[in-house]
Amino acid sequence: MRKLSLDNLNKFFAAVAESKTIYLPVDQKDGSAKYAKWAEGTEWSNALNTVRSPKDLFFPQTEDLMEFKTEGKNIEIIDIRKESEDFVIFGVRACDVKSFEVLDRVFLSEPVDSFYASRREHAIIVALACTRPSETCFCTTFGIDATEPAGDVSAWKTDSALYLKANTEKGEAFLKSIEALTEDADTAEVDAQKTKTAEIMKKLPLADLTTDAFGGGKTEELWNNPVWDEMSQTCLGCGTCTFVCPTCQCYDIKDFNTGNGVIRYRCWDSCMYSEFTRMAHGNNRLSQKERFRQRFMHKLVYYPENNEGLFSCVGCGRCLAKCPISMNIVKVMKKIGGDK
Amino acid sequence: MQMKEYKPLIVAFCCNWCSYAGADLAGNNRLNYPADVKIIRVPCSCRVNPMFILRAFQRGADGVILCGCHPGDCHYTSGNYYTRRRMAMLFSMLDYLGIERERTRVEWVSAAEGAKFAATMNDFVEKVTALGENKRLEDLRCKR
Amino acid sequence: MNMREETLIPKVGVITDVRIDTPDIKTFRVVTPDGKKAFDHRPGQCAMLSIPGVGEAMFSITSSPTNTEYMEFSIKKCGCVTEWLHQAEVGQQLTIRGPYGNPFPVDDVFAGKNMLFIAGGVGLAPLRSVINYCRHYRDRYGDIDIVYGSRSKDDLLDYKEIIDEWANDAGVNVHLTIDNPQQGWDGHVGFVPNYVKELNFDTNKTAVLCGPPIMIKFTLEGLCALGFDKTQIYTTLELRMKCGVGKCGRCNVGSKYVCKDGPVFRCDELDELPSEY
Amino acid sequence: MQKITRDQLITKAVELLSNGTVSAVLGWKKGEFDYDITPAVFTTEEEINNGFVYNDFCGANFSKYLVAKTKKLEGKILVFLKPCDSYSFNQLLTEHRFDREKVYAVGIGCEGMADVVKLKNKVDGIVSIDYNDDGMYVDTLYDGTVKVDYAEVMAERCINCKSKKCVAYDELLGEDGEVIDSARFDEVASLEAMTPDERFAFWQGELSRCIRCNACRDACPACTCEKCVFDNPGSGVENKAPVTSFEEQMFHIIRAFHVAGRCTDCGECSRVCPQNIPLHLLNRKFIKDMNECYGEYQAGAEVGSRAPLVDYTEGDLEPGEVFERGENDA
User: Are D240 and A254 within 8 A, CB to CB?
Assistant: First the structure.
């Protein structure tokens, strides 16, 4: 384990930034945080997490896929892809690190999504252990240890220092590149922090939430549950939950005619939108109940069925904080699983 | 490198009954006004939806002017009265968002006012030229 | 740049023939600009066609894989992309990518079986690929029955091919029907599900169904009434798709993605899916 | 803290349900942490006793739900209207969006609602909240019990409340208030006083956070189109994500314009925005302009009133004069 004095933090960012772009959580005017590029003078946010998840950095909300030039009846396809450059995502929480695994299984399964893969391969993830989880946190439900985040490098921030531990080859190379700024350290302070945080995690209001009622193979059992009617009745059908979710990955592909050509781009889409499944001949999910059910069934049943039991939720709590009507996956899980 | 002289692109929505005829008259009378004014004929100034104005800017317009019959003279009795309120509100909103107010204008031009049409366009183009390119309400994709 | 292949980036295709089949269905022949078939496919698979600026949509490949020269798509005018295609002329380029989805199990499950094909309207498009495949390798399959119905005689897709070729093949029985009586039509009149029941097929067959959802529903009931088991019946689904490779999430039904795990499903597999297709 | 209590509302709801006046109740349902309250439809006394809550986080405006619920449910539906909700209620009636006969409206006085974001910016790890006369006592994960004054966390829309008068109801609980001469346009005015460059920078900063979740639209009681122009592929402007800053601007200008004259200034758009964009400042700009140019008008104050943008007078200001007006004021 290596140790970086917090006094050297800016030197560290500057040193890394010489060769790679660093993205880290920074505060916004309204008090929330977002991932932004580090530049001289950028302050690292103390916020527990960002409103938008770091999935943006691999799977941006909008991205151009290709361009077309048309002339008469002829079409030319222009491949505008560029290999990503190396970059560092700094301060990713354990839940969000886990979300990358969820996304990987979609985008890196055959046929591999080259846009996503290129960024993923060039990213170094420096994950940060939590010390002050919020009441909306429930990552433990999904077996995530917030005190021991995965990622290429795990980091622990104490009052005076940042402790760093490499988990992968990429991570080791990264630590090596900043060796001059860090020193060897024992794990005492980190261990103490972990114990303390673990105690807090146990006391969180959602600590006893379980996934027992869910998982692959439960489609038939849960599909006709009257809960869907009841819980979806005031859903607004907006896309807030899906857009702040670190694991939601549905997208749309659209064309934009610039007047000089056509750009085909993709953008996030939401299964909560009424247009999501609309075809020329009709729509197979006509009511908000069906769309609402799709979202939660996908996260808690369909996805685990296809991915050896891995749930497509990481307990980050963003949807709990942001849903305009405060309806969320925890309420659904508790209602179906039996409120304790 | 020689600097190319900046010429703004102006979109003019002209009502079919008055302003479009006014533009025609300006042409017939050989009155000069810049060729950078692109006229879009609409059945009534009231046909112009706020989205038209924004889309004109998106597609590269540097200024948008809306011309209709004089209040009281609308072919459809009251269309331009509604336009007047709508555009007043819309342009005030654009101004509120920090978009230069000289880029938008409403002008009443009758079929007999060829000279006014030409003068209005000359004046508008001059004002927009002074402002330079539209940067605040542009869609970069359309400039590739 | 040495980035890996990207399935979302299509190839250019060119329309070399447009056949007007019915008032609202045209069949387009598509090859690459150098005159070759864009890619190989299996019966029942689909391809994404697009017109830049208009949109992209999934279509089943109606020509048989045994046709190595070109692909054909029978397309009904019903949305943005299809409407645009319907006014396209020969020589128009479009983009094409694929093949997507699972094919019909023509070489294993279907081999040696008596085949019963049941189609309604434009639902013949995906089946034509299998039918022609089976006709091409005639000796690998038993008897072939084809039940095809449409609104009227004019709405029968590939009518000429059916009459001139299919009906003349040995061991191939074609049963046509239209919804309402029509002058110049001396064949059967009535809906497909009823006709299937009337024909009273023996159950020593593997059935393949495609058509509007309501037809599929009642024909399936009819077949089961005749004693067919759901494991003997195959159908092909259609849902909104964007990526074609099980990532965009649109065609997700239960744990399946129609584009990747379908579009061909055995009817007993469908029973395991939530009824949302 | 609200003067109207949960018990009062429950008693009323149960009474109306059991005497058959209504068959369903639109109300607030308790959440996990006392502040995450969900609008819900209650149909039995048991459901009401178990789940119905009313506290300072019951800000959601129910009026829009009536459009869908009156079509779907048999019999009358009971709705509780806070003063600002009652304006939306009237506005929807003006636009014939639901059948008044199918609704039993109970007006309730309101002392101003709390803003969860403000509370969370003050207090970390909220476990539960007690409401006392002198403030909220928030039980937290890290700092024990923290006392928060109601005024500290009051929502912006309530600080600048325009009216405590219920303008529509079948029955009123508590006392009716008065229309207030509020300072709600002050922030708009201070923006107007900035230079165009400053205004542009301000709005770029705000709008660039937009994720186009459409929550502002979907929560807005004035946005009741069956098909929104931004969802309609035929409109040519359908978009699901703000690809460029232009599309951000367009969405928000058009959203505000489409409700101009119909917006009652209930503030739901700003409340639901996950990125805390002050969307009400766009709506209020239109309201302020219309008040100044075409006379005072409050949407929803009475059923059947004619909004400024569907009306005119021959002597209206010219668009150019609207700008000059600003300059003369300054």
Answer: yes
Strands, DSSP E only, in chain D? 24-29, 38-42, 77-81, 103-108, 126-132, 135-140, 145-148, 171-173
In this structure, the answer to whether residues A198 and A86 fall within a common structural domain is yes
- The 10s digit of each residue's pLDDT in C162-204 is 888 888 888 888 999 999 888 888 889 989 999 988 888 888 8
Convert A154-205 into a string of H (helix), E (strand) and C (coil): EEEECCCEEEEEECCHHHHHHHHHCHHHCEECCCHHHHHHHHHHHHHHHHCC
Domain ranges of chain C: 11-100, 115-236
pLDDT at D326: 55
Q: Which chain A residues are Cβ-neighbours of D32 within 8 angstroms?
A: 135, 205-206, 320, 330-331, 334
pLDDT at position D328: 46
> Least CA distance to A113: which residue of chain C?
C6
Q: Rounded to whole angstroms, how far apart are CA atoms D150 and D215?
A: 26
Residue A208 is assigned to a structural domain of this protein: no
Residues from chain A contacting residue B60 (CB–CB below 8 Å): 259
Residue A71: both structure tokens together: 């002339």
Is A212 within the bounds of a domain?
A: no
Average pLDDT in chain C: 90
| Chain segment B52-98, per-residue pLDDT in tens | 999 999 999 999 999 999 999 999 999 999 999 999 999 999 999 99
Band of the pLDDT at C158, cuts 50, 70, 90? confident
The pTM of the full predicted model, rounded to 2 decimals, is 0.91
Q: Which residues of chain A lie closer than 8 angstroms to B59, CB-CB?
A: 259
Q: How many CA atoms lie within 13 A of A190 on its CB side?
A: 22
Task: Please name the fold of domain C115-236.
Answer: Rossmann fold (3.40.50)
Q: Assess whether the previous peptide bond of C263 is cis (omega < 30° from 0).
A: yes
Report the pLDDT value the prediction gives residue C32, as an integer from 0 to 100: 94
Q: Which of residues 56-75 of B touch A (CB under 8 A)?
A: 59-60
Nearest to C249 among A250, A255, A257 (CB): A250
Q: Kindly report the CATH number that applies to the domain delimited by C11-100.
A: 2.40.30.10
Domains of chain B (ranges; CATH) run 10-143 (3.40.50)
Give the pLDDT confidence of A241-265 residue by residue, as tens digits.
999 999 999 999 999 999 889 999 9
Instruction: Kindly state whether residues A7 and A96 are assigned to the same domain.
Output: yes
Same domain, A232 and A161: no
Query: Residues A236, D218: contact at Cβ < 8 Å?
Result: yes
Q: What's the full length of chain D, in residues?
A: 330
Split into its structural domains, chain A has a count of: 2
Instruction: Report the alpha-carbon distance of residue B29 to residue D173 in Å, rounded.
Output: 73
Q: pLDDT, tens digit, for every residue of A140-164?
A: 999 999 999 999 999 999 999 999 9
ipTM for the complex shown: 0.90
Q: Is residue A211 part of a domain?
A: no
Domain with A19 in it: 2-203
The DSSP bridge pattern shows strands B63-68 and B10-15 to be parallel
**pLDDT value for C276:** 79
Tell me which residue in A83, A278, A302 faces C254 most closely, judged by beta carbons.
A302
Of D219, D240, D276, the CB nearest to A32: D276
pLDDT of residue A235: 93
Give the per-residue pLDDT at D182: 87
Q: Scanning every residue of chain B, which has its alpha carbon at the shortest distance from the alpha carbon of A264? A: B141
Task: With respect to residue A214, please indicate whether it lies within any of the assigned structural domains.
Answer: no
Q: Which of D254, D282, D290 has the CB atom closest to B50's CB atom?
A: D254
Q: From chain D, pick out residues whose CB is under 8 angstroms from the CB of B85.
A: 293-294, 308-309, 311-312, 316
Domain boundary among A203, A236, A254: A203
In this prediction, residue A220 has a pLDDT band, given cuts at 50, 70 and 90, of: confident
A315 and A234: one domain?
yes
Instruction: Tally C-beta pairs within 8 A across A and D.
Output: 123
Q: Which residue has the tokens 């023509």?
A: C106
CA angle centred on A155, ends A154 and A156, rounded to 5°: 135
Which residues are CB-contacts of D50 (< 8 A; sequence separation ≥ 6)?
none
